[in-house]
Design goal:
Shape: rod-shaped
Order of helices and strands: HHHEEE
Number of helices: 3
Distance between the termini: 159 Å
Length: 119
């Protein structure tokens, strides 16, 4: 009987200890308002980060689109046409206004009717 009384006393002490631990825990446990406030802070920070990432994504897509347009336009450029104005002036070709070639030399032909075999 004495052992039962000791066991009951130990059980009661453990229950009291557990209750006092719960009371101590409630002193240190955050309240529901604190938890809600922390959650709302994290939620708003998450929303700000998401908005910033979305703005960066849209900005990057816009830059890529503009660069793609310039790339397609630059593919149509011909550097030699932009640097050198190639044209003609009469029978002569010109590059940037400078005439290529010269007068055609007049070759004289012998009027002799002799052939090379006769020599």
């Amino acid at each position: 009987a004495n052992t039962n009384a000791n066991a009951n006393a130990n059980a009661n002490a453990k229950v009291k200890n557990g209750q006092s631990n719960k009371n101590n825990q409630s002193e240190y446990a955050p309240s529901s308002e604190d938890l809600l406030s922390k959650w709302m802070d994290r939620q708003s920070q998450s929303n700000r980060e998401r908005e910033q990432a979305l703005e960066e994504y849209i900005s990057t897509k816009t830059v890529i689109s503009e660069k793609q347009k310039w790339l397609n336009l630059s593919k149509t450029w011909t550097v030699t046409n932009d640097c050198f104005h190639i044209w003609h002036r009469g029978p002569f070709a010109t590059i940037n206004g400078l005439r290529l070639g010269g007068a055609i030399p007049i070759l004289s032909c012998p009027t002799d009717n002799t052939t090379h075999d006769d020599q």
